[in-house]
Amino acid sequence: MIIIDYCMPEMKGFDLLKRIKESSALREIPVVIVSLENVPTRINRFVFYNKKNRAFFGLNLCLIFCCSSGV
């Protein structure tokens, strides 16, 4: 599992997600995107891009660990 933050200093989380999904070596690894922001358009963008990924806006570590337990 790869956990990335939406707001990183050099690259946005969505850009990193696109690079991961374009890589044949990494594309099958589940990705969790976290952010303290709660912007519905960003959430929809992540969900639309790849339904296998999970986006958590408004960080809830318990929710992340519960969702990742089946991975």
Secondary-structure blueprint of this entry?
Layout: E1 2-5, H1 13-22, E2 31-35, H2 40-49, E3 54-57, H3 61-68
Parallel strand pairs: 1-2, 2-3
Description of the structure:
- With 71 residues, the chain is α/β, with parallel strands linked by helices.
- It has one domain (2-68): 3-Layer(aba) Sandwich (Rossmann fold).
- The chain is 39% helix and 18% strand.
- The chain has a three-stranded parallel β-sheet with strand order 1-2-3, covered by helices on one side.
- Helix 1 (13-22) links the parallel strand 1 and strand 2 (31-35).
- The protein is globular.
- The mean pLDDT is 71.
- Residues 1-67 form the Response regulatory domain.
- InterPro entries: ARR-like (IPR045279), CheY-like_superfamily (IPR011006), Sig_transdc_resp-reg_receiver (IPR001789).
- The modification 4-aspartylphosphate is found at residue 5.
- Keywords: Phosphoprotein, Two-component regulatory system.
- This is Two-component response regulator ARR16.
